[in-house]
């Protein structure tokens, strides 16, 4: 393995291990230069590039048949366009990550590689152990030495995140439709779909001890939280987080990032309030006495 950087044909070859390399580019638009070079081999390179991590750049980088990709997050931006390429690569089973632009330079791949800090990751990057806050150097090495083929993503994202005092735990899952029989009258579910009328049958049917979903940005007539009243009537405490604070479709984000925007009377009686962190609210629901 060699970690001594060297420049070949305008590219920065950062490291190599067992025939797999970390290749640094100043721009995603340089992908064709790398892919057409004599030493290029498909499915051997992690591409670190100082372009935004959007779909357009992902399409360009796909020409290099990468085993991993790291770019800039460009402040995420409107509609998440600065990192939308992460999901492009996730659909192709390729780990991808983006680095915080605030400490980096646009178009300077060497600075990105040597000084960058990861801010966003896709599921396959997480599967390799890459997390926000990690250095780009370490993240690139994990992509270089890891195997995405061994990763099976759990699209339900089910995980027990809190053990309650009275045998009632907090469980994250991406949808209330992914509830299990074991949740009945036992677990508080933090899920990531809206809290509208179509989820009422799921909630009452599965009957968790409590729930927190998304408000889906509310919608007309507060339809995004319309399930709170009928579930309250059914004796189930529930709340919703603002879609501005937590990612829809990601139950972990509901729990760790979400801020409560609405709650039914049973949840309010347990101490839940609008503006509260979902982490605290979920634990209150789990520990309430009935």
Folded structure, characterized:
The structure is a single chain. With about 290 residues, the protein is of the alpha/beta class. It folds into two domains: about 5-150; about 160-285, no CATH class. Helix content is about 25%, strand content about 20%. The strands form two sheets. A seven-stranded mixed β-sheet has the order 1-2-3-4-5-6-7. A six-stranded mixed β-sheet has the order 8-9-10-11-12-13. α7 links the parallel β10 and β11. The N and C termini lie far apart (about 60 Å).
Set out the fold topology:
Blueprint (H helix, E strand, L loop, with lengths): L5 E3 L2 E7 L2 E6 L5 H5 L9 E8 L2 H7 L6 E5 L12 H6 L5 E4 L9 H7 L2 E4 L1 H5 L8 H10 L13 E4 L7 E3 L15 E7 L5 H7 L3 E5 L13 H6 L3 E5 L9 H7 L2 E4 L1 H5 L8 H10 L3
Parallel strand pairs: 3-4, 4-5, 5-6, 9-10, 10-11, 11-12
Antiparallel strand pairs: 1-2, 2-3, 6-7, 8-9, 12-13
What is the number of strand segments?
A: 13
Approximately how much helix is present in the residues?
Answer: 25-40%
Output the strand order for the largest sheet: 1-2-3-4-5-6-7
Q: What's the main sheet like?
A: 7 strands, mixed
Gyration radius, in Å: 22 Å
- Contiguous helical run count: 11
Parts with pLDDT < 50 across at least 5 consecutive residues: 1-9
| Nearest-integer average pLDDT | 91
């Amino acid at each position: 393995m060699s970690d001594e950087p060297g420049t070949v044909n305008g590219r920065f070859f950062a490291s190599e291990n067992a025939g797999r390399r970390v290749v640094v580019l100043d721009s995603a638009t340089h992908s064709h230069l790398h892919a057409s070079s004599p030493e290029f081999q498909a499915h051997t390179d992690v591409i670190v590039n100082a372009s935004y991590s959007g779909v357009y750049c992902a399409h360009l980088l796909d020409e290099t048949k990468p085993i991993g990709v790291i770019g800039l997050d460009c402040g995420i931006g409107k509609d998440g366009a600065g990192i939308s390429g992460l999901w492009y690569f996730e659909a192709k089973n390729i780990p991808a990550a983006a680095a915080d632009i605030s400490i980096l330079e646009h178009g300077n791949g060497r600075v990105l590689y040597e000084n960058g800090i990861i801010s966003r990751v896709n599921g396959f990057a997480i599967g390799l152990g890459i997390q926000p806050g990690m250095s780009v150097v370490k993240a690139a090495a994990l992509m270089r030495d890891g195997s995405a083929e061994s990763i099976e993503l759990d699209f339900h994202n089910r995980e027990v995140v809190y053990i309650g005092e009275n045998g009632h735990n907090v469980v994250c899952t991406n949808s209330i439709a992914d509830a299990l029989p074991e949740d009945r009258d036992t677990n508080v579910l933090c899920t990531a779909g809206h809290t509208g009328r179509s989820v009422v049958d799921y909630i009452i049917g599965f009957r968790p001890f409590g729930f927190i979903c998304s408000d889906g940005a509310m919608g007309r007539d507060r339809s995004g939280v319309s399930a709170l009243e009928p579930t309250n009537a059914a004796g189930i405490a529930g709340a919703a987080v603002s879609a501005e604070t937590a990612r829809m479709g990601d139950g972990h984000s509901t729990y760790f990032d979400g801020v409560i925007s609405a709650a039914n009377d049973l949840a309010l009686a347990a101490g839940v309030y609008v503006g509260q962190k979902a982490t605290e609210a979920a634990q209150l629901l789990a520990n309430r006495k009935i």
